Amino acid sequence: MRALPEILGDTDMTPDLIAPSILSANFARLGEEVDNVLAAGADIVHFDVMDNHYVPNLTIGPLVCEALRKHGVTAPIDVHLMVKPVDRLIPDFAAAGATYITFHPEASEHIDRTLQLIRNEGCKSGLVFNPATPLSYLDHVLDKIDMILLMSVNPGFGGQSFIPATFDKLRRVRRIIDESGLDIRLEIDGGVKADNIAEVKAAGADTFVSGSGIFGKGKDTDPHHYDSIIRDMRAAMAGVSR
Ligand SMILES: O=C(CO)[C@H](O)[C@H](O)COP(=O)(O)O
Ligand SMILES: [Fe+2]
Question: Which of 7, 88, 160, 177 has minimal Cβ neighbours within 10 Å of its Cβ?
Fold first, then answer.
């Protein structure tokens, strides 16, 4: 893992965090994939949980999170819950070693209660906004949030294209966070790659999920693929102001 000064952004004191989404990793060798991407300089592990109900896909649960911890992963694990209902799984993920737990407001009957439950379980809490989800869900709960995650694709699958309307939404959320004075991360998820990450940072993001952009093409032919792709991402963001 890299030292804090190395991961500080150029223009402010909020470090840029690169969060590979393991949705696009090789699940048959998941521990090794996570070790390799962290050794290549990634900061946190993005862990997509899909239930074939809230989204039309089915992935992994708390057992896999626990297995990564037992394997020796010490980096923060950022659990993105695409499940409905949400609350039942939160204590299980907390016990399994999750660091962040984020959920979609449409999937919770009581958003305030779910946010409090996440913090009470000792994790950092976050709300996730689909491309068409209004930001009004932030009203009245901002002080209970550690991370706002904007989806730049519709949830359910990796490898989709970044939806350009997200840039405006990022700028609006950046303003809300800055005006609040609260310590809240702004994460972006979907279609982020080395060639658009600078623009995404300039619009306000500080935490960058990338699945197919990191685990996709190139890794089977180049043994240093993860190092070079993460280096390219940092180089693209260097000198870019949020
Ligand atoms: O939450 C997700 C999908 O619902 C994934 O985190 C996301 O799509 C990452 O994959 P990619 O970078 O390939 O778009
Ligand atoms: Fe995700």
Answer: 88
